Amino acid sequence: MATFNLLLLPGDGIGPEVMNEVKRVAFWFNETGVVSFNIDEDLVGGCAYDEYGEPITDAAMQRATAADAVMLGAVGGPKWDGVPYDKRPEAGLLRLRRDLGLFANLRPAICYPALADSSSLKREVVEGLDIMIVRELTGGAYFGEPKEVVTLEDGQQRAVDTQVYTSSEIERIARVAFDLARKRRNLVHSAEKRNVMRTGVLWNEVVTRVHQDSYSDVELTHILADNCAMQLVRWPKQFDVIVTDNLFGDMLSDEAAMLTGSLGMLPSASLGEAQASGRKRAMYEPVHGSAPDIAGKGIANPIAMLASFAMALRYSFDLAEEADMLERAITSVLDQGLRTGDIMQEGMSRVGTDEMGKAIVAALEAQA
Ligand code: NAI
Ligand code: MG
């Protein structure tokens, strides 16, 4: 039986509440006897600052490095507004992403049939939607040097951010996108601005070369990033995998995510290089934050966190069948009419965090 080491970092606010439901589901998988998760837990964010004076300790970082996958809840909240900049809760998250080398951010946008009317777009535009945005996460304009503000002789200020990409950075993110596409609908759109940016020209050339050399079975389309933004709201179902840089990916992933409704539904994965074991460093987290306005009330939607766990099953553990089961269980509870407050609709049954988690386990049970 395959054994996997999971590190849970529940964090702050609703983080621990939604992470409880990951434990419930992981324990259920343990009981089926198909797979065994060793579960370890540590602090990150404001709670770690309160306990240790650091948003993540070196010991927790070591555990994260050794784990087969990290599940993160959420960090932050008004309680830590006055904390020094380098100790703020988000610094723990950034250290995890940086030190684990998580260069590939995967953000799916999935439209659950039961929620197709919650979108701001028409039902027929979003029904059945299943897009994966692959955003480069450790390069580009957010990290390039020089990055500075200088005062000029005439007293004006001049700010500079630099968009930098090397061919190897582009190649490794392109490979992630092509590999994903092969497990999906075999279609990749690569979005850049080759018409006005040198990095766009290089991006286009490298993606074309990687495609020709190793992935000619996948259908590749180059698209200008601004057109991609338009097409996402015009007819999003034309897309399967979209690969793009850090800056465009920030915008396009938020745009794609919101085609489908609530923040409480959206998972993400951040992947690094393959290790000697063959497994990639990886961290999975919901897109939402710590939701201090509803924390401690037991009403948070655990679906984004559980869908993030489904991504871990699929991308870290190669448990595609179990990932499908969990995703079907989520679809099934929505079809049954169960809704947390954030996705509540007229005539549906309002449930809390743990009721939703229990219903999802029952829906897993029904498939076993
Ligand atoms: P947020 O995502 O925490 O909340 C935005 C709104 O969505 C709130 O009304 C919240 O109640 C609701 N919401 C979010 N997740 C939900 C869920 N699972 N179920 C039901 N409702 C949900 O974003 P906000 O309010 O901007 O930030 C709150 C704190 O979280 C801040 O300290 C922020 O820095 C932090 N944050 C942390 C992130 C992370 O850990 N990755 C990401 C975004 C924000
Ligand atoms: Mg963003």
From TrEMBL:
<keyword id="KW-0464">Manganese</keyword>
<feature type="site" description="Important for catalysis">
    <location>
        <position position="142"/>
    </location>
</feature>
<comment type="similarity">
    <text>Belongs to the isocitrate and isopropylmalate dehydrogenases family. LeuB type 1 subfamily.</text>
</comment>
<feature type="binding site">
    <location>
        <position position="226"/>
    </location>
    <ligand>
        <name>substrate</name>
    </ligand>
</feature>
<feature type="binding site">
    <location>
        <position position="254"/>
    </location>
    <ligand>
        <name>Mg(2+)</name>
    </ligand>
</feature>
<feature type="binding site">
    <location>
        <position position="226"/>
    </location>
    <ligand>
        <name>Mg(2+)</name>
    </ligand>
</feature>
<keyword id="KW-0520">NAD</keyword>
<keyword id="KW-0460">Magnesium</keyword>
<feature type="site" description="Important for catalysis">
    <location>
        <position position="193"/>
    </location>
</feature>
<comment type="subunit">
    <text>Homodimer.</text>
</comment>
<dbReference type="InterPro" id="IPR019818">
    <property type="entry name" value="IsoCit/isopropylmalate_DH_CS"/>
</dbReference>
<keyword id="KW-0963">Cytoplasm</keyword>
<keyword id="KW-0560">Oxidoreductase</keyword>
<feature type="binding site">
    <location>
        <position position="250"/>
    </location>
    <ligand>
        <name>Mg(2+)</name>
    </ligand>
</feature>
<feature type="binding site">
    <location>
        <position position="135"/>
    </location>
    <ligand>
        <name>substrate</name>
    </ligand>
</feature>
<comment type="function">
    <text>Catalyzes the oxidation of 3-carboxy-2-hydroxy-4-methylpentanoate (3-isopropylmalate) to 3-carboxy-4-methyl-2-oxopentanoate. The product decarboxylates to 4-methyl-2 oxopentanoate.</text>
</comment>
<feature type="binding site">
    <location>
        <position position="97"/>
    </location>
    <ligand>
        <name>substrate</name>
    </ligand>
</feature>
<protein>
    <recommendedName>
        <fullName>3-isopropylmalate dehydrogenase</fullName>
        <ecNumber>1.1.1.85</ecNumber>
    </recommendedName>
</protein>
<keyword id="KW-0432">Leucine biosynthesis</keyword>
<feature type="binding site">
    <location>
        <position position="107"/>
    </location>
    <ligand>
        <name>substrate</name>
    </ligand>
</feature>
<dbReference type="GO" id="GO:0003862">
    <property type="term" value="F:3-isopropylmalate dehydrogenase activity"/>
</dbReference>
<dbReference type="InterPro" id="IPR004429">
    <property type="entry name" value="Isopropylmalate_DH"/>
</dbReference>
<feature type="domain" description="Isopropylmalate dehydrogenase-like">
    <location>
        <begin position="5"/>
        <end position="360"/>
    </location>
</feature>
<dbReference type="GO" id="GO:0009098">
    <property type="term" value="P:L-leucine biosynthetic process"/>
</dbReference>
<comment type="pathway">
    <text>Amino-acid biosynthesis; L-leucine biosynthesis; L-leucine from 3-methyl-2-oxobutanoate: step 3/4.</text>
</comment>
<feature type="binding site">
    <location>
        <begin position="77"/>
        <end position="90"/>
    </location>
    <ligand>
        <name>NAD(+)</name>
    </ligand>
</feature>
<dbReference type="GO" id="GO:0051287">
    <property type="term" value="F:NAD binding"/>
</dbReference>
<dbReference type="GO" id="GO:0005829">
    <property type="term" value="C:cytosol"/>
</dbReference>
<dbReference type="Pfam" id="PF00180">
    <property type="entry name" value="Iso_dh"/>
</dbReference>
<keyword id="KW-0100">Branched-chain amino acid biosynthesis</keyword>
<dbReference type="GO" id="GO:0000287">
    <property type="term" value="F:magnesium ion binding"/>
</dbReference>
<keyword id="KW-0028">Amino-acid biosynthesis</keyword>
<dbReference type="InterPro" id="IPR024084">
    <property type="entry name" value="IsoPropMal-DH-like_dom"/>
</dbReference>
<keyword id="KW-0479">Metal-binding</keyword>
<feature type="binding site">
    <location>
        <begin position="289"/>
        <end position="301"/>
    </location>
    <ligand>
        <name>NAD(+)</name>
    </ligand>
</feature>
